[in-house]
Amino acid sequence: MASTSSLALSQALLARAISHHGSDQRVSLPAFSGLKSTGSRASASSRRRNAASMSKIRSLRPLVRAAAVETAEPTTDSSIVDKSVNSIRFLAIDAVEKANSGHPGLPMGCAPMAHILYDEVMRYNPKNPYWFNRDRFVLSAGHGCMLLYSLLHLAGYDSVLEEDLKNFRQWGSKTPGHPENFETPGIEVTTGPLGQGIANAVGLALAEKHLAARFNKPDAEIVDHYTYAILGDGCQMEGISNEACSLAGHWGLGKLIAFYDDNHISIDGDTEIAFTENVDQRFEALGWHVIWVKNGNTGYDEIRAAIKEAKTVTDKPTLIKVTTTIGYGSPNKANSYSVHGAALGKKEVEATRNNLGWPYEPFQVPDDVKSHWSRHTPEGAALESDWSAKFAEYEKKYPEEAAELKSIITGELPAGWEKALPTYTPESPGDATRNLSQQCLNALAKVVPGFLGGSADLASSNMTLLKAFGDFQKATPEERNLRFGVREHGMGAICNGIVLHSPGLIPYCATFFVFTDYMRGAMRISALSEAGVIYVMTHDSIGLGEDGPTHQPIEHIASFRAMPNTLMFRPADGNETAGAYKIAVTKRKTPSILALSRQKLPQLPGTSIEGVEKGGYTISDNSSGNKPDVILIGTGSELEIAAKAGDMLRKEGKTVRVVSFVCWELYDEQSEEYKESVLPSDVSARVSIEAASTFGWGKIVGSKGKSIGVDSFGASAPAPILYKEFGITVEAVIDAVKSLI
């Protein structure tokens, strides 16, 4: 228990804050589990506020109600709650201290709300972190990850044992420096870049609302869970959070409850130096219900009452602003940025132990706390067992819906789904690959139950509308067209949340390829967190024409080829577009990017869905013995140019192999024998052509080859003129070949 002096200090700090207004082997899954295995102190002046200032601030918040404490009913003895909360704090303190690295301040401040969530509110099964109908939790302020690791440890997750806490931030541990869903079962999404997590939470809540609308029946509520999140001031400052939270309000995601850790401290100091907006009023304007818990340090009943109230609001998400003290309990560092991102230090750890009356050794959890938390293992198993029985009854009554939902829960695609993809012959009409993409999207939506997506206000240009379905909106959440508005960054992160909700949810999102610059952060997290989002990126080159260099991607293809665990497709026609989608749908742990043309392209002889699976393959060749005079390599709209140049060179007596390099990453996965059959090492005369940066092509064409591309910004003009002026022509290919042979 805390000493009288520490409580007095904490209450003083709290008053100041109120005034002021970042696949585990240990898990054994049952047969139908819901997922396959797979510097200095803040100034004294900044801590003091007079009564007039408090009155002024309060007057700015007339619409924000504090939690109704009188309605709260404590569900747990307060002494064990205090002990449990301090266990969370000191597990975090001890782990950061041992690693001499990390962020102890957030876990120390957020421990009360986190305890109440994990111990009293959330439904989960510690022995099966992938149970489908579990509540989801996202720590958007991922730097405070020891909060989450401590909770998972106390709750009985096998992924975070005491040894894992002791190995915090060490090589090969299950407790990395920020939460990683692919590393630690029990972690829903990978967070760290601030704002990404709350946007992921919007995606998780969207998935729940969508599936509930599609599959629940009057006599069977089979999809019924909440999404909770904790975000901090840094998340609030990042623009992505506003994008995503705007959509959450618009969509009325009533089962999304976000806790705002309102501690007024960021890395550079007090947030008053850069962040003084009224967050409460902003969220109300975004369509959220807002509650203010004034005492987040010891006001357990206030927190309980806020959660209870939030659950009564079903037509909008809820933001619970919880005013806390960062580093609560530290006598000399609480409420300062020095506790944000560094270990407390030996002396301050000892002082904090004395201050909070904590006599236990590092990493020691008191027996009564262990006993208290141990109930979550049998309770969690019972929750899952009850749900499984409920699903079995549902399956009997509604076999068709159950089969679809089971496909989404397990990620098992319907047999023969790929046969729905269209195929083309050279006689088929030519078309822009963005239009061919729309044919694929609509074909897939008919046979893949979890296929859904949308565009950043460009559906009519990206050609991404699913014609058989309506729009996912507040009143029609069962529909599959997602309208993201002009919010690329939020869109990408929301899709990460959707795909990480259930293995069979396959979201796609779309914009112009150049605007990947706006959502690159989310796309990188897709790759890192093994989230198989499909990115449909149209207007892929200078071929878009008159819109000019602001809209013409140059370096983008090369940059995504450099991104780990990312498939960068640039299909040349209908068969290659269908082939790219076939791979993208099956690659559930790797995001795919399809760069698609605005301009019409022919259906080329020699292209195939099967060829795309190899990444690079021969579409025409008149040589023998695997010894062509020259190899021409193209992607996308330039494969046609390479094919035409090949035909002309053959008329001059040359033996020419034309190769489509639709996806470098898939080609890199092929055997050395296969690669030699496509690009024989003895043939050094190689020419590549791609209407983009030539960066990276050297590894394909070799030191003696040539690359034709665009290594400057584009220009505004009709596409044929741009291709001529930038030298993306048949003639340029032939000249390059003649210079080599």
Automatic annotation (TrEMBL):
InterPro entries: THDP-binding (IPR029061), Transketo_C/PFOR_II (IPR009014), Transketolase-like_C_2 (IPR055152), Transketolase-like_Pyr-bd (IPR005475), Transketolase_bac-like (IPR005478), Transketolase_BS (IPR020826), Transketolase_CS (IPR049557), Transketolase_fam (IPR033247). Keywords: Magnesium, Metal-binding, Thiamine pyrophosphate, Transferase. Thiamine diphosphate binds at H143, G192, P193, L194, G234, N263, H340, F515. Residues 29-54 are annotated as: Disordered. Its EC number is 2.2.1.1. This is transketolase. Signal peptide: none annotated. Mg(2+) binds at D233, N263, I265. Binds 1 thiamine pyrophosphate per subunit. During the reaction, the substrate forms a covalent intermediate with the cofactor. Binds 1 Mg(2+) ion per subunit. Can also utilize other divalent metal cations, such as Ca(2+), Mn(2+) and Co(2+). The record marks H103, H340 as: Important for catalytic activity. It comes from Cardamine amara subsp. amara. Residues 431-603 form the Transketolase-like pyrimidine-binding domain. One of its GO terms (cellular component) is chloroplast stroma. Belongs to the transketolase family. Catalyzes the reversible transfer of a two-carbon ketol group from fructose-6-phosphate or sedoheptulose-7-phosphate to glyceraldehyde-3-phosphate to yield xylulose-5-phosphate and erythrose-4-phosphate or ribose-5-phosphate, respectively. Could act as a stress sensor involved in adaptation process. Its cofactor is Co(2+); thiamine diphosphate; Mg(2+). Residues 40-54 have a biased composition (Low complexity). It catalyses: D-sedoheptulose 7-phosphate + D-glyceraldehyde 3-phosphate = aldehydo-D-ribose 5-phosphate + D-xylulose 5-phosphate.
